[in-house]
């Protein structure tokens, strides 16, 4: 995934055609949005709104893509490698406790 980011950023920096540059940026951020959904959508949207609300805007499109990609990558990591495994572990332990007590799950 890091190699894809480096390739995309390099492509964006040397591409002279604005249409292709916008398509590359959209594709890169959209793929990360899908991978980090739903937490990336919520967290990324909130942080992007907050940055706009306080008046900070990236100096270029390239910086904008990098910042958004980073936000989405971190939220995707937190969601799929931290929160979901903890939730599954907690669910398994509760199921095991209920099974030991002999209660029926509904």
Domain tally = 1
Radius of gyration: 20 Å
Q: List the total number of helices.
A: 4
Q: Tell the overall outline.
A: elongated
Mean pLDDT: 79
Low-confidence stretches: none
Helix and strand succession? HHHH
Tell me the β content: under 5%
Q: What portion of residues is helical?
A: over 70%
- The number of E-state strands comes to 0
Walk me through this protein's architecture.
13% of the residues are buried. The termini are far apart. The protein has helices at residues 2-14, 18-35, 39-54, 61-101. It is built from four helices and no strands.
Give a concise summary:
The protein has 106 residues and is mainly α. It contains four helices and no strands. Helix content is 83%, strand content 0%.
Labels describing this entry:
single chain; mainly alpha; elongated
Please describe the topology of this protein.
Layout: H1 2-14, H2 18-35, H3 39-54, H4 61-101
